[in-house]
Amino acid sequence: MKPARLAVLAIALVTGGLAAYLMSGDDKPPAPVILAAPPPPVLPTTDVLVAAAELSMGQSLQAADLRWQPWPDQAITPGYITRTSQPKGLEDITGSIARSGFLSGEPIRPQKLARSDGGFMAAILPSGMRAVAIVTDSRGSSSAGGFILPNDHVDLIRTYRDEEAMQAGGSETQISETILTDIRVLAVGQIVQEKNGSNVVTGETTTLALTPAQAEIVTLAQKVGQLSLSLRSLVDSGRATEVAPDTRGEGGVTVVRFGVSKQQSRR
User: Fold this and answer.
1) Which of 3, 63, 144, 158 is the most exposed place for a label (fewest CB within 10 A)?
2) CB count in 10 Å sphere of residue 87
3) What pTM did the predictor assign?
4) Going from the N-terminus, what domains does the chain have, and what CATH number goes with each?
């Protein structure tokens, strides 16, 4: 073979080997560039006074029960206590009584608090209402089987003897009638708040929130008969109820409209 051909063949072999070496290299492809996500915008916040733990109705608030917590400015309502508007809000609220329960982290609102210089029942009683206690049976015969709890709504039923019917017929006659409807229960015995949904009937009295006129009706009804409580559904709470007149006898009947009792003739 001619030297020129040998030279060309040698050059081709060297070039091919070099190309094969370069193709089999261990160099890895460059890693993809990952762009970091931009940080979320920082929302302006203001310190708001909140409950440091769950607070129950009637609890006297102490400093350990409260704390300042950053709150987004756009979520602050006029009822919140802020460090900007009330720097001594924590100290001012300490000693107040909770008129209703607070969840942990819930903002403290003055509308749900009462001053501690009065009795507890007076603190949780709504404005214009009166607290009246009636005698009930803790075994449940006059309190819906013992399932009536604080903050439930009930109807009041009066049971009494019909003296006129007894004189006319000679036999004892008992009459039951609803005298008030949709009445809020403030306390059962000495318990003013439901605990874990359990039966909390521990006494012989039930305290009701009544208007002055309703308080007079209930006080008189206790003197001339026996009162029982009829538990209302949560769906029916706040709805006006009209009691149909009783057609027995010729005397009067009590008709209840919007929680107000009124006497009218059966005729």
Assistant:
1) 3
2) 11
3) 0.54
4) 45-118 (3.90.1210.10), 125-265 (no CATH)
